[in-house]
Amino acid sequence: MPASMQADRGTHQRAARRVPLRSRRWWPWLKRTLTVAFFALVAALLISEARAVDWSQVFASIRSAPLPVLLGAAALCVLSHLLFSCFDLLGRRYTGHRLGTRTVMAVNFVSYAFNLNMGALIGGVAFRFRLYSRLGLNPGVITRVVSLSMLTNWIGYVLLGAISLLWWPLVLPADWKLGGHALQFIGVLMLAAVSAYLGVCAFARRRTWAVYGHKVKLPSFRLAALQVLMSCANWLLMATLLYLLLRQRVAFDAVLGVLLVAAVAGVITHVPAGLGVLEAVFVALLSTQVPKEQLLAVLLTYRALYYLAPLFAATLMYLLFEAGLKKRAPGAAKGAPSG
After folding, report:
1. Residue 320: which residues within 8 A CB-CB, separation 6 or more?
2. Helix (H, G, I), strand (E, B), or coil: what is residue 72?
3. Cα distances (Å, whole numbers) of residue 181 to 127, 185, 258, 335
4. Which residues on neighbouring strands pair with residue 214, listed in sequence order?
5. How far is 230 from 18, CA to CA, in rounded Å?
6. Which residues 6+ apart lie within 8 Å of 71 measured at CB?
7. Looking at the structure, do residues 11 and 116 belong to the same domain, yes or no?
8. What is the model's pTM?
């Protein structure tokens, strides 16, 4: 090939390589701009809605809550956080690491409290990786524990969502334009997903799979069933807490359905703690049954009990963790085999 043609070919190849680099430069900026615009729109909508609320009635409704109701709600909050703190015990059984039960539950509690208030990336992942790694677990084991815990949380959600859509469908606002048949179809898909997961865990002969270069081991059917039962119980405890704070003015199945919708809305919007999203969904779906001010009073009480009080306790526990871990010798932690 003549030297001039080789030079032209080299020039074209370099130009072709430069185009994707230039195109990649503007993409992060566009993504950030769209994200900021989205949050600005959400904030504007929330501020607009907040201006229409009689906040004096909201705070009066909070003050009028009966003490037995608040004590019962606090007890349900403790039970829910205690149950969720057991999710990582399933991860211990799944991976075979040897950390103690109280240690695992404490790490799980701290992570869940920060997860609720600051998002899954900070609470569900970062706190677990920091604490478990300092306790002697290797990154591979931690990844499997975190993955199984997240799966446990959402597998029960999917099953309850399927039941809710198929047997207790919500009455949605007319402008949502989502018919009953569409909701039932989604419910069938969700039920099929849970059934498929349990079926694979029960009957698959091949127990280890390679996914993007990582080995994924299927849990046993017994472990998968425990995931479903524990997760469903936790979501039901949260719904019962709200049902109690609402003083049974709304049917339990409706409260559960709205909670499930609010949970997935919070995940989609990526707003830390679902701030404003939870309230917006409950007001949109239940304001015809309960006055808006009373709904907001219930939700603010729910946030104080389920989000803020555990966060305060988790912060103290985390500081104690850090202080205790600094005193430990580098090789003193009882971790897991490097598998």
Report:
1. none
2. helix
3. 42, 6, 18, 50
4. 211
5. 52
6. none
7. no
8. 0.79
For residue 216, give the DSSP letter.
Answer: E
102 and 134 Cβ atoms separated by less than 8 Å: no
Q: Cα(305)–Cα(242) distance, rounded to whole angstroms?
A: 11
Residue 196: is its pLDDT beyond 80?
yes
The string of pLDDT tens digits covering residues 58-103 is 666 677 788 999 999 999 999 999 999 999 999 999 999 999 999 9
Between CA 281 and CA 271 the distance in angstroms is: 14
Return the ∠ at Cα 319 (arms to 318 and 320), rounded to 5°. 90
Residue recorded with tokens 């072709």: 16
Task: Return the structure tokens found at 294.
Answer: 């009373």
Q: Which residue has the tokens 């046993």?
A: 220
CA distance 114 to 217: 28
Q: What is the model's pLDDT at position 120?
A: 84
Q: How many residues does the chain have?
A: 339
**Which band of pLDDT confidence, cut at 50, 70 and 90, is reported for residue 37?**
low
Residue 303, in any domain of the structure:
yes
Q: How far is CA 315 from CA 107, 126, 218, 249, 266, in A?
A: 11, 14, 34, 35, 23
17: containing domain = 1-52
Residue 25 tokens read as 């430069």
As given in the structure block, the two tokens for residue 316 are 């103290």
Among candidate residues 78, 224, 80, 239, the one with its CA nearest the CA of residue 152 = 224
Helix (H) or strand (E) holding 220: none
Same domain, 253 and 180: yes
Cβ within 8 Å of residue 110, ≥6 positions away: 127, 131, 314, 317, 318, 321
Burial bucket for residue 286 (CB in 10 Å: 0-12, 13-18, 19+): buried
Residue 85 DSSP symbol: T
Tokens (6 digits) for 319: 């500081």
Same domain, 40 and 61: no
- 145 and 287 within one domain: yes
